[in-house]
Amino acid sequence: MRNETLESLVLGDVLRTRAETHRAETFLKFREGEITYGEVDAMADRIAQGLAASGVRPGEHVGVMLPNCADFVYVIFALARLGAVAVPINIAYRSELLRHVLASSDTSTLIIDGPYADRLPELAEGLPRLGRVLVRTDGTSEVSLDRLGKPAAPMSSLLDHGDDAPRVDVGFADLQAIMYTSGTTGPSKGAMVPHALALTCALDSLDFLDRWGKTIYCPLPLFHAAGLWDGMMSALLSGGSIAVVERFSASRFWDDVRRFDAQIAMSVFSMIPILLNQPPTDRDKDHPLETFYMGKSALDEPLRERFGVRSVETYTSTEVGIATASPYGEWRLGSCGQAHEERFSVAVVDEWDREVGPGEPGELVVRPKQPFVITTGYYGSPEATADCFRNMWFHTGDRVWRDEDGYFYFLDRMKDAIRRRGENISAFDLECEVNLHPDVLECAAIGVPSELEDEDIKLAVVRQPGAALAAPELVAFCEERLPRSMVPRYVEFVDALPRTPTDKIAKYQLRAAGNRGITPTTWDREEAASV
Questions:
Q1: Cα separation of 316 and 410, whole Å?
Q2: Architecture in CATH for domain 197-413
Q3: Which of 186, 214, 306, 443 could form a disulfide linkage to 263, CB 3.0–4.6 angstroms apart?
Q4: Out of 3.40.50.300, 3.30.300.30, 3.90.1860.10, 3.40.47.10, which CATH number does the structure's domain 417-530 have?
């Protein structure tokens, strides 16, 4: 489907077309077996019929809190067929993080995996718009549906209403999803994603990675854009297959690649240093893999020397898809590529949105040349939308520079977000949870340098007067309430946090203290664990 037009980029229609041309060919690969295009198409229709029978209507927002599994894929396609809007949810979310996503997205139906359902009862009163819950179970454990605080039914009940999906007129400009991105100056925001945005991102990744018809290996979560768009939707558009596993494992990675005969690996920056740090073996080049996406271009040489694999870097985000990339094989060390000129105008600007010249750092801004290929805004957040789209540019919040030939180089994040092991962590969300501890007066979360390319999390904490809170106790509190990726590695107790003249926390001072944020009084969770 190399010659797709914008008008044809509608997720449910693309699946139907692919099922007609590749019905018996493998689309999804799991450890448990393989599923064809025709089987996915049929199951999407059946679940769409069940969702419609349960009351889901076009335009309705449906939360999807499922692990990497076939049901996740079926549900995403079923919602697209109905013209409903998927709200993929991080399966590690609980407590206020989960309530915020469900409430701020106006989710009215939630499809949730059984092991996560026990997180709902405490949130039910704070979710007045959530009208129904559908619970996926594997038959090995029971879920008390009457204790969830909302009308609930097993997800399997969706299969009781026939095989023919309702025919709904869905267009490329309609919303396919609301994808939550890291909050920087406030809570996480839901980026509104038209079908055209998700599918042009998938389509473009095929061209820039030269991966038409190839098998993709995906150890990334499907509730993130990388796994869902660049992974699953790219496989769909190319007529290839995608092998989906539950999570990244360094010890299983190469055996999985060989087992699934994968040529492309979906990755985040931190995965590659972990693999390079594994002990060498005589099978390091005994595999079919050709490319990591995304990997740091700076790691291309060591990857090629050891594993015979390329590392391809682009500038990609949930809000804009692939804004910069290089033609396949024309990479430059440290660069995320050139502007994707067919779809976007891309510039580097100063604080007044004036374009700066080659070699000068500034903020990366993007302007679409085609309709609906970037987010249409943040759901329920008109002020945040207006701020990001000021002066007719979408402001990424990332600092970059470009060279004389138009290659862009990422420097750092201008926003208050932390990048940890492939996850964009909301400092605001983390701080809100930590501040709920009764012995915490206030705190500030910052990113500090990590051995694994991205960042580790440090908390600077002011205790309540008279409190004797210790770092291990605070980390244990975080482990109970937060996703693993958000649990801080470093903790430092301070008498007061530095302030700006307008009484905001001066995080730049925290980052500048000691050795790039790590001081002699900073407690290190990993160091403590090794003692």
A1: 11
A2: 3-Layer(aba) Sandwich (3.40)
A3: 214
A4: 3.30.300.30
105's tokens: 């997205």
For every one of its 531 residues, what pLDDT tens digit does the chain have, with 9 covering 90 and above? 466 788 899 999 999 999 999 999 999 999 999 999 999 999 999 999 999 999 999 999 999 999 999 999 999 999 999 999 999 999 989 998 899 999 999 999 999 999 999 999 999 999 999 999 999 987 666 788 888 999 999 999 999 988 777 889 999 999 999 999 865 455 789 999 999 999 999 999 998 877 888 999 999 999 999 999 999 999 999 999 999 999 999 999 999 999 999 999 999 877 888 898 888 999 999 999 999 988 777 788 899 999 999 988 999 999 999 999 988 888 888 899 999 999 999 999 999 999 999 999 899 999 999 999 999 999 999 999 999 999 999 999 988 999 999 999 987 677 667 878 777 787 878 888 898 899 998 899 999 988 776 789 999 999 999 999 999 999 999 999 999 889 999 999 999 998 765 567 878 789 888 888 899 999 999 999 876
Q: Of 447, 442, 441, whose CA–CA distance to 488 is shortest?
A: 447
| Single pTM value for the model | 0.85
Question: At the top level of CATH, which class does the domain 10-23+37-170 belong to?
Answer: alpha beta
Please name the helix (run of DSSP H) or strand (run of DSSP E) that holds residue 152, with its range, or none.
strand 152-154
Q: What CA–CA distance (Å, rounded) separates 204 from 265? A: 16
